[in-house]
Structure formats: structure tokens, C-alpha cells
Amino acid sequence: MSGNAPEGTGYVGILTPDQTKALKKFWAALEEVQENGTVTVVPEPAAAPEPAPVASGWGGGWFSAAAPAAPVVEPPVTITLSEIGITAVEIKTTLSNVILGDNPDALALRFLRARKWNVGNGVLMLLNAFKWRLTEDVENVKVLGDDELDIKYPKFKNQLEMGKFYVHGTDRKGQPVVYLNVHLHKSTDQDPKTLERLTIYLMETGRLLIQPPVETVALIFDLSQFGLANMDYGLVQFLVKCFEAYYPESLGTILVHNAPLVFWGVWKVIEGWLDPVVASKIKFTYKNTELVELIPAEHLPDSFQDAGLDRYNYEYLPPVPGENDLMQDEATKEVLLGEWNHLIKRHEANTKVWVKTEDHSLTNPVQAERDAIAKELHSHYYKLQPYIRAKNQFQRKNSAGVSVIQPDGSVKWTYNN
């Protein structure tokens, strides 16, 4: 299938039969390209559009009928691993690393939705994202602790400490809210590579804060006190590229708040870079009370004085000595990784059977088995995580002895009303 999907569908557990068919085709194509090094994906025939209405009179009515418009025929998509610069082994490894605690289907569906259900384009987009992750060594951001990242990327921790951005609470849709205090940023204050690693760190950390069935975050660019010295076109381009190409369908809402007159010249440049889908999610707000339409007042920091009720002050929680000691326990890590890899292989084997079934309903018994394995993967990831991933500030306890991310992967926000 291609084109726009029915509203409210396209997610794990709420797929139409056509969407399930596309998902099966996605996994089948991904398997074939790993086995053969290349795959050609032929799009499903598009449904013929309705005939155009015909005017009455000599040119229409009983005496003639409008010829139906020809359906749009999309060309096949051929994908070759050597052209992308990725191997089958790297695909398997990256897929395992990217899944985290998610249902594997949720990952595939994000790329399918981003490419309007064109399976070939979705697979190609996924593989290009995997190649980027390998080139950028994204796993490095997850394995290294904050202190190690600060050594490798100077002033990394400084960005976290100053509150240039912070994540706090959820909006009315359950999306984690990322606040960006733009006036605190100057492009010359730190190396551009540090900012890129910080962006990737935010993306990878943010994924742990998103709780199913929610799959997206909300961004609030607070432009209070904004001046041209705060503008960083390179960083904006990198951020846009990340959301559009490497973390698709992970951005729910963007609020540009309190933009001064000087920003509108900047906006004309940025607007031209945006995919129409991303651009459609942007809303400009000027009064703090407008934020309450998106975020409940009791979740909104009271720094937005006449609207927020949450007496929250951002404070960076620094690393705790010994917090990553389990990463040195190679024996336990090996056992847990073995169990994880076994689950991955079970899911892969089950998927090979599932893609060949003619039943595209959600009650397919093979699908039920896949769902059960996905739940096991979710549970096991959080047992494995302390041995393979450094802690972040959301996993550290604050002065009240409370952390945002719990050991089982659930998220608990605390509001001070």
C-alpha cells in the first residue's frame, strides 16, 4: 500500500489488514537484502481513483462519461547493501542495538509511516539510518558515562549543567516535553561536534522517557531573550536532519514560544529546510497561557509565571561514583546478552513464518506469538541495560531519593504543585 493511512491506525496493535501486509513485506524485504545483498521491492498496485464528476449538457450527462483517472504507479525500489555501505552482520547488530525496550514492529512502522507506506522506501530509509548510526558511532553515546563524554567532547557536561535544554513531565497527550532555552546558547561557546553528540545523547536518552503507546515527544523552543547571537544554523540543520531521517515519527509537537521580531528573518531560512510534515507540527505561541492548551498547568514549570503551577527548578544530577560498576561484570553481561540474542533469534524465526501467512488480521496466532516475544524482549532489555549502558541523569535519584526512570523501564514524573 502507499499514500496516506487511515487516521488513528498504523501503530502496534491498531493496524489495518493492508498495513499488516505492508509490515510483513517490510520484514521480508529486510531479510532478503541481508541474505542476498540486494532486494527489489515492487509496490502494491494503487487503487484506481473514483471517476471525475461529469457536468450535464451536451458534454456529459447521459451522452458521455468521464474517463477514470489512471492510478498512480510507483516504480520498484532496488536496494543494494554495497551501495549503502553496510553489511548484513552490521544490520543485525544495529537492529538489536536500536530495538532497546521497544516492540520491533514499532521501529519498522515508524519508517513505514515516514515513507507513506511505500515499503521499499521505508526499508531504504531504515538502512540509511543504520549506516548513519554506525558512521556516527551512536552506541558510543550510550556506553560512555557523562564524565567520559565530557573528556571526549569538551564542555559536554556544561551543556547539561546550564539547563540549555531539559526534559520535564508530559503534555496532555502523554508526550515527554523537551524545553530548549535558546537564549543560553551561543554557537562559539563549544565545539560543533560537542553539540552534535549532545543532540544524539538527547535523542537516545529521550527514547527511554517515551512510554508506549506514546511514541513521540513535544519540543518547546523558548525564544524569550532571543538575539541573533543565539542563532546556530548548523545545529538547527543537524536537529532537523535527525528528526526527519534518523529518528522519524518521533516528533509530535513543536511550539516556538515568544519569538521576537528579529527571529522572523531567521525563520524564513529555517522554514525552507523543513519537510512539510514537520512544518505542519509547528505552532507559534506568545502568551504563557497558550502553553496550557498543550501541557496541563500542574505539569508546566512555574517559570512560565502566569500559567505553570509546577514549582520545578531544573538541576543537573551529576554521575554518582560506582553507578556503572555492573558494566564491568563481564560474566553476568555475557549470560544476559546470550539470553537477549536468543530472544532476537526467536523473534526473527517467528517473523519468517509470520510474513508468509495469508492472515493479515491482528488475531493471527503467529502474530500473537510475536507479541509475546516482543514483551519478553522489553522485560529482558531492562535486566540487561545496567550491564551495557551507562546511567543518565534521569536514572539517578534526586535529593528526595526519587528517579524519573525506574529499573523496570517505567517512567515516573514528580510534580511540585
UniProtKB/TrEMBL annotation:
Pfam families: CRAL_TRIO, CRAL_TRIO_N. It comes from the Eukaryota. Residues 153-312 form the CRAL-TRIO domain. SMART domains: CRAL_TRIO_N, SEC14. InterPro entries: CRAL-TRIO_dom, CRAL-TRIO_dom_sf, CRAL/TRIO_N_dom, CRAL/TRIO_N_dom_sf, PITP/CRAL-TRIO. SUPFAM superfamilies: CRAL/TRIO domain (SSF52087), CRAL/TRIO N-terminal domain (SSF46938). This is CRAL-TRIO domain-containing protein.
